[in-house]
Amino acid sequence: MQIQELGEFALIERILRQLGPGNSSVVVGPGDDTAVMQVSPGAVLLATCDALVEGRHFLRAQITAEQIGRRLASVNLSDIAAMGGQPRWALASFALTDGLDTSFVEACVRGLAEQLREFGASVVGGNLTGGTELVLDLTLLGESAPECVLRRAGAIPGDAILVTGDLGAAAAGRMALAGGIPGPDAQACIARHLSPVPRVTAGMAIAASRLAHAMIDISDGFAQDLGHICDASRVGGLVELDRLPIGAATRATAAALGEDAATLALAGGEDYELICIAGADAEARLVDALGRAASVPLTRVGTIVAAGEGRWLKDSSGSSLPLEQTGWQHFGPLRRSR
Amino acid sequence: MQIQELGEFALIERILRQLGPGNSSVVVGPGDDTAVMQVSPGAVLLATCDALVEGRHFLRAQITAEQIGRRLASVNLSDIAAMGGQPRWALASFALTDGLDTSFVEACVRGLAEQLREFGASVVGGNLTGGTELVLDLTLLGESAPECVLRRAGAIPGDAILVTGDLGAAAAGRMALAGGIPGPDAQACIARHLSPVPRVTAGMAIAASRLAHAMIDISDGFAQDLGHICDASRVGGLVELDRLPIGAATRATAAALGEDAATLALAGGEDYELICIAGADAEARLVDALGRAASVPLTRVGTIVAAGEGRWLKDSSGSSLPLEQTGWQHFGPLRRSR
Questions:
Q1: How is residue A153 annotated by DSSP?
Q2: Per residue in A117-150, is it b (16+ CB within 10 Å) or e — as a string?
């Protein structure tokens, strides 16, 4: 069977079956935002990797080399943030095409190093190879206290579903860039698409508060990433449409695009915000902690329910729709060109 | 300037200038076989990455998916071995082409996981993306006691230059495979090319002995990798041609190819043996330790000299030739097609 018939998540399932058991030091193996390994009694190591492929994740006509490097850092920083960790060390592995200008590579590495440094991490090693396609791969390592690590599993019925920042701006920006939408609202969204800000400080503040039960970052899309939490925690969820935090620029750009802003917020992806699940009584303390530590808003958008109650989106009229998992998959029918 | 005009090592130099300083936990940054980071007072973390690109590092007509996976593990295991470390955790990042069969990916991962497990490591995470070219990237993490880590720097004049196993077999195998050379000698060399065995146990035994001053694994080629040690240690070297360990199958295959076996041993590359530099009086104890721990032969092939004395290859007649750095560079004039 060809991989695109199977789809990304089914392929990952098949791959995981080939791996066999990890060694005893592996606290969290494949299937969460980062792997977690015990390196000493008081510290765990977090490790994640993500790649940007030209023509698929970026077009050089639309983004500068420095922005590409920053973005490569950010998508990985976001995964460390999702576990509540402190980013520390990165390894960059690049497949470079013949004819590529050295200034491109230098600017890309400069952006990468600057964005990592902003969050306390540095490039410690890497690898270069030639290729027919530009592939920029980064592995990022982080540290955490063992008791502070947050996973996808851990949500329980009655918990609040909280989200940092706002949703849908990156997707609106991606579409505005492709469609040539002008104006300051579109520009603001395009900046969110090209230069996402990973919620590293917020993630560490949430983890340090010990108030959260589960966490994930939004890369595939809010609905799909909440689905990953529901899968791992074996729970359901009820999301209130009117509570989704959507910025004015996102609404204006969605309107200019003829798109529904709420759909972009639910399924657009690449927001790199955090979905945080916490006890309903912890909401106010978390909002306060996050405002102080990271100046990031935290909005309650719904409630965790029992698995049997399903996953629903409730609108203002009180009617409910299935919270479809409509986010991004790399292989298979849902793949979009970008 | 285009990257192929600059060459791999000059490009790496330019990249390193973009990185800025690492944080204080970085013991060894970019430029050695692995990065080394302090994670607790008694332990350091080793981290390396290396990629295999279809059409450049392998041809699917010549190697099975399982062998590709094993090879991906081995080239990274060899870098951890070069520092004397224990391999522990790996992250696999694959760019997969549409139309690729899932069975290929499964077999590749199975080979990767098996080879890692053989040396005490396991896959803890990874990433999949689509691409127009098959790129298989692995990051491997290892552990060591801080006092046991061996680097490229540390060789001093008077030291013995020692090498594990034998040289040139992988290069002979690569050429035999391309040239369709038949027979058991060629087959033995082809197996060394397709399925190199990383010297993990030997590397750890050498490190634990505390007798060595510097170490590197041979990927670019003996002469070039010894040159990396000379560069980092600011020393020269004198290699005795007749002492180079070259197996009978390698000599026979080189003859069938019309190639000089010593040239393959010096510059062929991909041997994944270790060059170990140690005090001249330590040679016998190291040979003994390695024979017991890893059943791997260790051969003295030369002597470290002062930097001003240069880098020379001495033949049996007593005449000396420059120990040219003729190994593999990914970009630039020395690039070979394979």
A1: T
A2: bbbbbbbbbbbbbbbbbbbbbbbbbbbbeeebbb
Q: How far apart are CA A292 and CA A166, in angstroms?
A: 18
B276 min Cα distance to partner chain A (Å): 22
User: Contacts of residue A146 in chain B, CB cutoff 8 Å?
Assistant: none
> Is the Cβ pair B100, A2 closer than 8 Å?
yes
Q: ipTM value, please give it.
A: 0.91
Q: How far apart are the two ends of chain B, measured CA to CA in Å?
A: 25
| Minimum CA–CA partner of A52 in chain B | B129
Interface test with A, best of B102, B134, B151 (most A CBs within 10 A): B102
- pLDDT by residue for chain B (338 residues), tens only, comes to 888 888 888 898 899 999 987 788 999 998 888 999 998 888 999 999 999 999 999 999 899 999 999 999 999 999 999 999 999 999 999 999 988 999 999 999 999 999 999 999 999 999 999 999 999 999 999 999 999 999 999 999 999 999 999 999 999 999 999 999 999 999 999 999 999 999 999 999 999 999 999 999 999 999 999 999 999 999 999 999 999 999 999 999 999 999 999 999 999 999 999 999 999 999 999 999 898 888 999 999 999 999 999 999 998 888 888 887 544 444 443 333 33
Q: What is the pTM of this model?
A: 0.93
Tell which phi-psi region holds residue B194, choosing left (phi > 0), alpha (psi between -120 and 50) or beta: alpha
CA distance A256 to chain B (A): 31
From the list B221, B225, B173, the residue with the least C-alpha distance to B195 is B173
A23 interaction partners in chain B (CB closer than 8 Å): 88, 120-122
Which two three-digit tokens encode residue B99?
């139309």
Please name the amino acid found at residue A279.
G
Q: How many residues does chain A have?
A: 338
Contacts of A95 in chain B (CB under 8 A): 51, 53, 95, 133, 135
Q: Mapping DSSP to helix (H, G, I), strand (E, B) and coil, where does residue A275 land?
A: strand
Residue recorded with tokens 């490790």 = A47
Any CB–CB contact under 8 A between B13 and chain A?
no
**Tokens of residue A52, six digits:** 């940007």
Q: What is the strand order of the sheet B26-28 is part of?
A: B26-28, B35-40, B43-53, B135-144, B86-97, B122-131
Q: How far apart are CA A174 and CA A177, in angstroms?
A: 5
Q: Establish if A22 touches chain B: CB-CB under 8 angstroms.
A: yes
Both tokens assigned to A73: 């850092």
Distance from CA of B16 to the nearest CA of A (A): 9
Helices B200-209 and B65-82: crossing angle in degrees, nearest 10, is 10
**208-227 of B, contacting A, C-beta below 8 A:** none
